[in-house]
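## retry 2 of 3
previous attempt timed out at serialization; input unchanged, resubmitting
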Amino acid sequence: MPRVLVMFGPNLNLLGEREPEVYGSASFEELRSQLRATGVAAGVEVEVFQSNHEGDLIDRLHAARHTYDAVVLNPGGLTHTSVALRDAVAAVSIPVIEAHLSNPFRREPFRRRSLLASVCVGSIQGFGPESMLLAVRAAAGLLRPQTREKA
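## retry succeeded, writing output
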């Protein structure tokens, strides 16, 4: 079964508590459970990883290239600031999908620039927790043999 790693960056462990008007009321654990169930339904195994540390995210992304077939990445605030994370995405040979719970274009101006978008295969944003579920479905679609043949 194909494997998808879903990665969350800084402060996303506080989902359900932190700014529910922006990020929703579902807890991180609830979203983790939904992501795994969505993966099963889509025919992929999902593992979820969260860190508040940029280096941990980079290390996990580097390791993922040997054990996962695709990555869904919600880099949080690192989206707008981390050249190092952008370079790590560019360095791995597996597809990475950028995903955000909120729509950065409806927020502060500094959030409207993603350093990662140009090295990701696509981006899904603005649908709350559903953004992450859609990204898992998209990753599963990328991993189907007929989709790979068309790419």
